[in-house]
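The passage that follows is intended for readers who have already worked through the single-chain material. We present the inputs for a multi-component assembly, then the predicted structure in tokenized form, and finally a short commentary. You are encouraged to pause after the input and sketch how you expect the pieces to fit together before reading on.
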Amino acid sequence: MRRVLFGLWAALTLAWTPLHSSSLDGLTVVGVEFDPRAQPVAGSQLSALVAVKPGEPLDVRLVRQTIHDLYATGRYKDIEVEATRAGDGVRVTFVTQPSWFIGLVDVTGVPRPPTPGHLMNVTELEAGEPYSEEKTAYAKQQIRRLLKENGFYLASVEVDETKHPEHQQIDVVFEVNAGERTGMGEVIVAPDPGLTVSADELRRIAKWREGKPLTQRRVRRGLERIERYLQQRHHWQAQARKVDLVYDPDVNRVDVVLHVVPGPRVMVRVDGADFSPAQLQKYLPIFEEGDVDEDLLSEGASNLRDYLQTQGYFSASVEYFLERDRKEEVRIVYHVERGPRQRLSSVRIAGNRYFDLETIRERLLIQERTMHQRRGRFSQSLLERDVEAIEQLYRTNGFRDIEVMSRVDSNFGGKTGSLAVFLTIEEGPLTLVSDLTILGTEQIAAQEFLPQLSSAPGQPFSEISVATDRDLILGRYYDEGFHDARFGWRYEAGGHPNRVAVEYKIEEGEPLRVRRQIVSGLRHTRKALVDRQIRIFPDEPLSQTAMLETQRRLYDLGVFSKVDVDLQNPDGEEPSKNVLVQVEEAKRWSFGVGGGAEFARIGGNTGDLTSPVGDASFSPRVTLEFTRLNLRGKAHTASLRTRFSDLQQRALFTYENPRWTGSDRWRMTVSSLFDTSRNVRTFTGRRLEGVFQVQHKLSKPSTALYRFTYRRTSIDENTLQITPGLIPRASQPVRVGLLGGTYIQDRRDDPTDATKGLYNTMDLGVASGIWASEPDFLRLLGQNSSYHRLPGRLIFARTLQLGLMLPWGQVPQGARDLPTPMNFASDPDSRIPLSERFFFGGANSHRGFPINQAGPRDPVTGFPIGGGAVLLNSVELRFPIIGQDIGGVLFHDAGNAYSRPGRISFRAKQEPLIVDGQIAGYEFDYMVHAVGFGLRYRTPIGPMRIDLGYSVNPPRFIGFEGTREELLTNRGMLTRQRISHFQFHFSLGQTF
Amino acid sequence: MAASARGIILLLIAPWQGSPAAAEIIDKVVAVVGKGVITASEVEEQLRLEALFNRDPVDLSKVKRRDALARLIDRRLLEREITAKNFPPATVDDIAQELAALERRTTRNGAAFEQQLESYGLTKEDVEQFLVRQTNFERFVAFRFKTGLDVSAQAVEAYYKESFLPATRRLQAEAPPLEEVYDKIAAAVMDERADSMLVVWLKETHARTRVVIMEDSPPSK
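Having made your guess, compare it with the prediction:
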């Protein structure tokens, strides 16, 4: 019976009849169908792919070809073709299973470490790639492995898959129940004959205390410590590796099984030259890499030779060899032949007509001696590379027969040890392109890239120019989705001597287009906001640039911690692709606590008027910051920043829309501020302020700010350090409404530390009763800065700042100017409230003054009372001192805060006010000059700065020795004082 | 037992017996190699071609199909490499001589050759394509694995002593001197080395290429 069954089963399986012997072969196809009817490939594309056509005879080769072509799209997992007799013909049905592609991947429920990023990486699941159960199983296995390495031995991992049939995508979420993290147990060491350190000692070295949580990082760092311990004992090839982790569930501990191979002791010796241990550490990479191999030994020899060459031993040679006395010890001997000590006195170049000397010299590695490099830089190999570089420069520019000859004079000027290099250039004829023909451009007009081509008619001809053109043309095609575009070229004599006709031939291929964009990962963010940032549109060419631009724009929203733009089914042969835009939203709430301190001339008792300039003092501060990102899912941000110190209490609330009106050129900010500060020593001001500001990015370098500010400023009468006669006026609360704007033009190469370019700003504000301002005035502040590179890595920087305040209208009732004789010259216009005036001087303006100490002063107490105008001209010479990171500055600052715009003066001498033959006061409307020196240390956020300024003509003033009470009761004493000649500033960032 | 067996038989044959329009599976995917597939009809065609060249009857048994599929997978791996390296393909003209030789070997005139092919379920185009592919493989293998391969005199001598002489002794034939067969042995040693390199290459390529053999394929007979 069994045999019968088997026979029947075998016969039935023969129902799969190969077409070679099929009775259906050659019958007319009456219909082609698909099961299921909905196919993952679009209708028009499907018709093109199916070679089996109704009305034609059935042909097995066409069926096979169709299977191949359908599968090649990447959209099918399996295909089977059935044929059914239908009358005299045959109906063909393609039974298909669609492919699935990986969508969002996430791993949840794991405490750190491992980090979410690490977990995601080990899954090796890439968005857009074909999905398979094997991949998921592998990913799960990898997660388990990583969890174990981080002590989660009892973790369970479940896979939650969500299918999105509309775009054949599966989101895969690995839900982890991590359980308790296990602790470190015993250290078990596999025996090694060279190892003399016990297991307990290794545990101590690795800092693996029993019971400490097991993490991958702890194990790795422990192994590094063991290797370092052995390396410090000259076992430079020491290796410590984890062989196994053995889990004991009874005590929830993991024993670490180690294999430690100390390797031989490696001793290093240098013959023929003296190197300190620190220099050997620096130049021999075996110490840093902790390994000894041919490459590292050879690199060490090169480093030593290079160092010697910088010291003037231009013909130095370094060889190394190994001495293996015993099995346990290897000696590395670097043998140095220093040769004579020389200096490169001169590099002379002749024969160049097409390029100037500077263009050639900037390509040279050999260097004449300079102040920084006293012996210059030279070696035969550097010279050969320089000759090649010059020839390459000429060849690139059409000099196909260029020849550069070099000669070294080792007794230059009759001086022993003085070298000179003579480079003689024979340029030869210049070959120009007489004609350029571009063939094959049908879908992109050649005119679009023609103006940018290097091999245009009349231009020098070279293979490098052609290569540049090729990259440009193909780049343009790739951007338009022609990913199979090819470039070919040829040239022939152009009819005249040294002229060639060039022909480019382009095979465009078919463009790849975007089918649709699939956005995923949004939780709170509005999809419309994301859609506006996407630069990839259906049916448009698939452009790599557009994909990167989309990613950049989404990151710029500031609400996503991760943005990936990938292709779905990247390897599938499809004319159009789905583009996946996957985002991960950043945390919406952030909270920051910070601390800091100011050290400056900010000290002094507020009740004591003795020291108007202030004493050097230290003021600690605390900052708190709350930020809520992505408000209402629109990428708006609200933040509250507070700062508390004994100088300042400040709270700033800001609401920001970075894409106002939907455009990334417009940014709107509304802010309100509460501020009580004593940053000007004269008073403690309290400010309540609201600002509405719109920022408009006009172009890459140009920005405009439009702003309305309304503030109420009051001054604590008890802190006011000016003459009592002015107190009622100066301490009155004032409301200022300021409508204005700023134009910024920034063409600097690096805003934090510019070396070339321009920086211009113009700020204009109008305070007027029309918008409920109590004082009426116009405020203008402009800056023009420029930066210039000079030879020898010198930078010349300069800036000019001018500020004017122009009041109008009536002098308010109760206000009056200073009483005579003190109002002789430097009395600021009383229509401008004290808190609105220019306070000037310090690290970021005029370095001849302590902070905010420039300009007019109270005639009795000597405290600054602010000016109605400022002028500052600064010049700096910036130069390197050590390497790239430490530099110096010589500066000259000239300017001051002046009482009124009309009193701006270039006069360098301060005039005293003589009354009855006695000095009764001083005027302040003169130009203060300061020169100085500064140090800069480069950091990623700009240079750290120390400046020491010497003021040539610091202001003298009348001050008051005594307390405020003594002043009010006419006690105390008037004294003559002056601001110190020397001023010391510490700050971050260049001055301008 | 008998009744239940009858039930099963009826159940199994019902779809074919009961419907005049029973569907036949005329082709399907039997293996995935990288981004491409091998279909059941390709496996069968391979068996038919091999039978033709070996002048054997066509055997489409499950075992033969499985072996043929394994050979096709190896060939597909090589084809991928040929495409990736832009190796110039052979043409029908390149295999004209081999086709003629095959024709002479199997039949006496053209008409009989066509009949012969038909009896194997093949067309002349199938054979031509097969020969083209074969030529491509041979050329590529020679280029990829024999270029720069140097066979030393010691290697030839060792082969002569260790393999050639014992083989002739077993055949009880007189062994020619080394000088006479030197070139042939050098070629054989080179072939042997190229073969072993090919085997290693195939193993490595197989390991790093996604190869999936569909569960019920090829269909068993």
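Commentary: Chain A touches chain B at residues 1, 4-5, 8-10, 12-22, 24, 58, 60, 63-64, 67-68, 71-72, 74, 78-86, 92-93, 571-572 (CB under 8 Å). The first strand of chain A starts at residue 29 and ends at 35. How closely did your sketch match?
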